[in-house]
Amino acid sequence: MINQNDISKETMWEATITCDSAYDGLFFYAVKTTGIFCRPSCKSKVPNSENVSFFGDAANAQKAGYRPCKRCRPDLKSKTYDPFGSIIEDTMQIIEKNYEQKMSFDEIATKVGVSRFHLNRLFKDRTGYTPLMYLEKIRINKAKDLLLSTTLNSTEIGYQIGYQSISSFYNAFKRHTGLTPSQFQANYVEKASY
């Protein structure tokens, strides 16, 4: 296993200025002028090299009087830290637990504590969906379950899963399945009878 003593100062400096996550957990860097220490992958402003010290672990950086960075959280025991993972997870949980309610994108962003622009970009980068696309996906999956497991009609299902208009529900359902709700139901019944 590589430790900090096996890595040259030049390599550590290069990893620091390029925010190379491959070195996370192998060393930490501290900045004398701020009194803060970080992981190599931290996206904070690049410090002047003469103000930087390197440490093999977080405990030694703290013993030397440095505080952990609030952005990259080098004090956490995990090798890497994803500050946005909890935002994605929280957004998904909010949508999954409240899909049947009328929800605005602003409300979701406020609940997870970021701007709507930041949430939209971050969520799309990580999941391939915008939060509203994800909401629609959850609703349509629930509609498919209800179509196959209840005697509710399409209109009742559309309202139950949170659509304010039936045409919005039908359009979303067709976008996701290529079928209308009744065609989807008929296809399933036809396949089940074979």
UniProtKB/TrEMBL annotation:
Gene3D superfamilies: DNA Methylphosphotriester Repair Domain, Homeodomain-like. The keyword Methyltransferase applies. It comes from the Bacteria. One of its GO terms (molecular function) is methyltransferase activity. InterPro entries: Ada-like_dom_sf, Ada_DNA_repair_Zn-bd, Homeodomain-like_sf, HTH_AraC, Me-P-triester_DNA_alkyl-Trfase, Tscrpt_reg_AraC-type_HTH. PROSITE patterns: HTH_ARAC_FAMILY_2. Its cofactor is Zn(2+). Keywords: Activator, DNA damage, DNA repair, DNA-binding, Metal-binding, Methyltransferase, Transcription, Transcription regulation, Transferase, Zinc. One of its GO terms (biological process) is DNA alkylation repair. Residues 89-187 form the HTH araC/xylS-type domain. This is AraC family transcriptional regulator, regulatory protein of adaptative response / methylphosphotriester-DNA alkyltransferase methyltransferase.
